[in-house]
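Schema walk-through. Below, the input block comes first and the output block second. Nothing else is stored per chain. Lengths vary across the set, and this one has 341 residues.
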Amino acid sequence: FHITKYPTIKFVQNGVLAKKEYRGQRSADSFLEFVKEHVQDPVTEFTDLSQLKTLDEKKRHLIGYFSSPEGADYENFKKVSLALKEDCLFRAGFGSQFDNMRPPGQNIVAFRPSKARDSESDQTFTGSLADYDQFSAWAVEKCSPMVREITFENAEELTEEGLPFLILFHGPDDTESIKEYNDLVSRELISEKASVNFLTADGVKFAHPLHHLGKSKEDLPLIAIDSFRHMYLFPKFEDIKIPGRVKEFLQGLYSGKLHREFHYGPDQAEEKKEIEDKSEDNKEEVKTDNAAEEGQHIPRTDDEQPEKADEKPKKSTDPPESQFVHLGPSKNRYTILRDEF
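--- output ---
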């Protein structure tokens, strides 16, 4: 059950463990309200195809076309809906009026991605709906995206997963940068999914972390890492279009390079490149960095080469402190030192 703190309240329905634990108030009324909410059927029936034109484009949907609500196909659809109702909205249509949407004698389920967040098109499950494990695995893949939105409601559980955040901060109405970020993750960063959480955040709602990065809503969109110790800003959002640039940024977190360069400036190879790229009218600035071109070692500590450290003085502060770590489980709320019940 992956219990990491006390008290932890899990929810199991029809033998299926819910993906999210209970995080509401610990009162009888709140428990009752939670149970009432979760015993409701998560599948909404539609009777006309026109109803599918008004689906929320910010949500992901699984849409089933069934001959009837009887049989193993729909039972498995309903069972999966109980497990994934937090991630997808489930719709089902029954009867002959939907015969043109499915092959004769066959039920089908289609996935409709969030049109506001994803560039991918609708997809149909091609396996057997009667095979629960096969259908469930497909549904989990579709309904559990690589990139998730962080809110004040889910920040605690995302923080509790323990992985650093790579966050796109965007404007409330900006969908293009979200799609670009999703495409980037799918194209270049899938190999990093076990090491980092890919998130998007409303930059107006999360203005406080932006402030600690020295940014505001006028600077959106922007990308940053929160390692739960410090925050690091990706230099230029437009550079996500340069292949490998964001992955290199992540590698800098793993190796400690981002923290090191915050204090001492770019590593030697990168510093040389900066010098070579300077225009002729900046020659005086280039001269101050000639030591790097002459092969001298760029120090990682002040003791190794004091005179170089004088040219590039060590900053007096660390990188901005993590702000999202404060949204993790509170020690005042979860403890084994007192009996809440």
